[in-house]
Amino acid sequence: MDDASSVEELPHEPGANHNLLFSPSIVDVSAPRCAAHTTPEPAAMESPPHVAVVAFPFGSHVPHLFAVARALASAAPSATFSFLSTAASLARLPSAAVVPANLRFVEMPSGRGCEGDEEKAPLWRRIEMFVDAAEAGGLRQALETARVAVGGATVTCVVGDALMSMAAEAGVPWVAVWTSSPCLLLAYLSGDALREDIGDHGACDELLTAHAGLGFYRVRDLPYLGRVTSGSSGDMRNVMGLLFGRVAWRLPRAATAIAMNAFPGLFPPDVTAAIAGALPTTCLPISIGPYHLLPGAPTAAPPAQDPHGCLHWLTRHPARAVAYVSFGTVAAPQPGELRELAFGLEASGAPFLWSLREDAWPLLPPGFLDRAKASASGLIVPWAPQDAVLRHASVGAFVTHAGWGSVTEAMSGGVPMMNARAVERLWCFGTVLDEDAPMTRGGVAKAVASVLAGEEGVRMRARARDLQARVVEAFGHDGGSTSNFNKFVEIVCAAPILQGTLELWAWPRGSVDQASHSRDRGRG
């Protein structure tokens, strides 16, 4: 499913940092909540900013938010930054990760029960426990811990994953960070109108052509859009439906700005205009991505972050010859399709690198692992440094579930994608398998061969290289993402001063993306 999953859970990353120096344990906060958007005292505004970056501690959300935190801390060395997440998610950060001196880690409570019990619970239940704890005061407790840990410096701004919408009640400006496709943000902000149009159970293949910016989406691409009640529980759809519903309600009313994981100009004008039109003038959408390329990111994966030798293995193969395969756990193929995918990779005759959780290896066809190892044509690993893999010259195709993080990394690496409908429709650097039938070995083999060696693959690679060049341009000295990120730093570090007056801020033309400029025009 194209970039629809926002809680794709990653495997435990090798080389994870189990020795991070966390701040003191959580303390109880008995003081009443401050009113949202309370203007700080003048004396507080003279102190260096203390910014809390709050992650949603599941899947790729944590590395995305860490990339934002690291970039902010590198760009504003006089400010203090606290990175808030659960102990388990903090421990998954790579041990070799570069951490600026003005960035520290603070634990958030993960919810009810001990850590071991939580890990045994299904993903939807772990999300539910964490969100319940955060809504009940866990976030405020962590913010107080962050304040104490830095000698009493009050948090002046919360930069939080949009799914952490309880940050709206933290009593300081909230700058949201959206990690998935901007189109999905538009869909959830438009939830009421979409539900009125298609109902709670619209036809799965119905295109949303009546809704600006969403014409290439189908009902099935928005699994958490259906109506749920506050008492709903019991599965991922209900839990995430409630979570996105809170985001859609709080974000337009409380967020000062929202960062987008895209570069300016990536989406057609109707999409950026629709996003701007769905937000009030007090909430600025600003494209600063792709996040993994923000300042402070490592330029290459050190050996400690490639424990299975993926990059060394790739050097044995010619340019653009290898198919890289990686699916998340939420969108992973069913066991039968997993076996068909394995047979299809073998049948294609192309070398492949497959990042697959070890607990799924027993589902592979008998002898598949041994045959791949013996022929040296395939490498199956429990984890791979995906960004570095996609930037390697030997990789010519990416077989994936097309989560948004994977899409932006494929763009950055100039690699065509398979199984990516939105990529095919919007940017023409991908292809899809048969959407109306289960995955088959024949379909996989044909698609891999087409991308790696066919004329269609030549066209897709040319388009992928064009997008790669646009990414590079966006992060140039005067590029759109660079300019927007500099403005993002100003918003975050000056949040107490700008509070309540953001709509009067004089934004130079060209400093933000088209969405921010089209906002007033779209309101008639």
Give a written overview of the molecule.
There is one protein chain. By secondary structure, the protein is of the alpha/beta class. The chain folds into two domains: 42-183 and 254-298 and 494-523, Glycogen Phosphorylase B (Rossmann fold), CATH 3.40.50.2000; 307-474, Rossmann fold, CATH 3.40.50. The chain is 40% helix and 12% strand. The chain has helices spanning 42-46, 61-75, 87-91, 115-120, 123-149, 182-189, 191-198, 236-254, 269-278, 310-314, 335-348, 368-375, 386-390, 404-413, 421-426, 441-453, 455-474, 480-493, 495-498, 514-518; strands spanning 50-54, 80-86, 103-108, 157-161, 174-178, 255-260, 284-287, 322-326, 352-355, 378-381, 395-400, 417-418, 430-431. The strands form two sheets. A seven-stranded parallel β-sheet has the order 3-2-1-4-5-6-7, with helices on both faces. Strands 10-9-8-11-12-13 form a six-stranded parallel β-sheet, with helices on both faces. Strand 6 (255-260), helix 9 (269-278) and strand 7 (284-287) form a beta-alpha-beta unit. The longest helix is centred in the N-terminal third of the chain and has 27 residues, at 123-149. It is globular and about 65 Å long. Residues 8-44 and 498-524 have low confidence and may be disordered. It holds the Pfam family UDPGT. This is Glycosyltransferase. Keywords: Transferase. One of its GO terms (molecular function) is UDP-glucosyltransferase activity.
Write a concise synopsis of the structure shown.
This is Glycosyltransferase. This protein is α/β, with parallel strands linked by helices.
